[in-house]
Design brief:
Order of helices and strands: HHEEHHEEEHEEHHHEEEE
CATH superfamily of the largest domain: PAS domain
Shape: elongated
Number of helices: 8
CATH class of the largest domain: Alpha Beta
Largest sheet: 5 strands, antiparallel
Mean pLDDT: 77
Distance between the termini: 78 Å
Amino acid sequence: MTKNSYPTDEAIRNLRKTAEALLPRAAMATTPLPRGTAEQQAAFDDLAHELRVHQIALEMQNEELRNTQLTLAETRDRYLDLFEFAPVGYLTLNDQGLVQEINLTATQMLGIPRARLLQRRMAAFVAPQDRDRWHRYYVRLKQGRDKLDCELHLLQQGGGEFAVRLSGARMALFDAPFAIRMTITDVSDAKQLAALNESNLRLRLAIEAMSGGLYDWDRLSNQVYWSSELKHVCGAHNGELSAGRAWWQENVHPEDLQRVRPLVRQVIKQRLPRFSVEYRIRTIDGRWIHVASRLDRVRCQGADFPPDRYPD
């Protein structure tokens, strides 16, 4: 039987048939009554039979109930495991905005023990700059029944903040006005990636807006990066600049190379932050063009010697 269900008449009849099959009538023979008619003896036998059948039926129902309880316990344990160790945070708020339930993932996100989170207002864990947004979001959740999303920052123990996406909905309850079920997804990495992509996009647009391009020389690996715009300036379309600095040294005008190379060495030796120079360089199709280069020194982290990088 399932929750809030009752056995049908057919189920009762089948249960009785099963019980009677387990109780042969011969087993119901009883000691004759010391007094009484044959009719009284027969009535007594029938009553004893009915009681025995009823007893077996109750024992069968009891066994079914025990099996159902075991199944429910296993289901509850699986639910608790899914709830506690889900990859996102789960919590339940009451109609006052107090935390009623919260899973292990959410407590780890906040870095606060569960006991210190229960019966606390959720607003207390929202970053100050986002509390107005939280209150508007919570009011909308209380007023409607649709799932609503919101992005804001939560506070961690120790004063840190992290970006999250909240997904919540109002749920009706029998013993309370309502509850708010909510998931918490950490989107800090996604926010950082989006910011990096936006920064890269702005850099690409800035490079495209120039009449030149970007040349990045990593002294640690001696690798050179040529932007597509710079390759276009030099007339390269099929990877002709893959040789890196060797191509640059071979194609700077000899007269200018004698002047520029000592300057570059001086910049490296003195670790000057910025340097500009003009010279002539030969394009892939053999033309000489005048270019102006501005060198910015960028110090890389985690190397044993100054692994400067020189974007040009």
